[in-house]
Amino acid sequence: MNTSVPSGRATVTLLAAVARNGVIGVDGGLPWRLPGDLPRVKALTTGHVLVMGRKTFDSIGRALPGRTTVVVTRQAGWSAADVQVASSVAAALELAAAVDDHIFVFGGAEIYAQTLARADRLELTEVHAEPAGDTYFPAVDWSEWVEVARERKDGFDFVTYERAAR
């Protein structure tokens, strides 16, 4: 666990597949299929809480089994089966922290941008390509992060970063 996380505060991990050009999505979906990526996501997140935006949830189409899902939306009255709803990222993180001490932020771009400063860890699938896309991961100040693990695959790497001591 990241030792820079204050005791009593939930750990926030951003989880994303990101191309070299920062693309994370196109037309409401992913621009790739990466063997092993979905099993990794499942292994990392099962038993924990996922925080995601409504568009990301809609692209998945359902709550993922074995995880608590908190969806951030400004749409009044929006609901879905097996989902908790929050009207802001701050409210979503508060709801999530009441459930588990490890929160995974699952997208999309706006939610990543609003949680990056709060993140303790990045679990990235770094895709060795520059696909066309319309959704981007926010700019990261890499001087604030330390790579702690890398698993090389064919065309992508699984990489874990932890925030440098604050």
TrEMBL record:
Coiled-coil stretches are none
Q: Which UniProt keywords apply?
A: NADP, One-carbon metabolism, Oxidoreductase
Q: Which reaction does it catalyse?
A: (6S)-5,6,7,8-tetrahydrofolate + NADP(+) = 7,8-dihydrofolate + NADPH + H(+)
Cross-referenced CDD domains: DHFR
Q: What molecular function does GO assign, one term? A: dihydrofolate reductase activity
Q: Could you tell me which pathway this protein works in?
A: Cofactor biosynthesis; tetrahydrofolate biosynthesis; 5,6,7,8-tetrahydrofolate from 7,8-dihydrofolate: step 1/1
Q: Which InterPro entries match?
A: DHFR (IPR012259), DHFR-like_dom_sf (IPR024072), DHFR_CS (IPR017925), DHFR_dom (IPR001796)
Q: What is its EC number?
A: 1.5.1.3
An example of a Gene Ontology cellular component annotation for this protein is: cytosol
Give all residue intervals belonging to the DHFR domain: 11-166
Quick one: a GO biological-process term for this protein?
one-carbon metabolic process
Keyword Oxidoreductase tagged: yes
Entry superkingdom: Bacteria
What the protein does comes down to:
Key enzyme in folate metabolism. Catalyzes an essential reaction for de novo glycine and purine synthesis, and for DNA precursor synthesis.
Similarity annotation: Belongs to the dihydrofolate reductase family.
**Could you tell me which PANTHER family the record lists for this protein?**
DIHYDROFOLATE REDUCTASE (PTHR48069)
This one is known as Dihydrofolate reductase
Could you tell me which species this protein originates from?
Phytoactinopolyspora mesophila
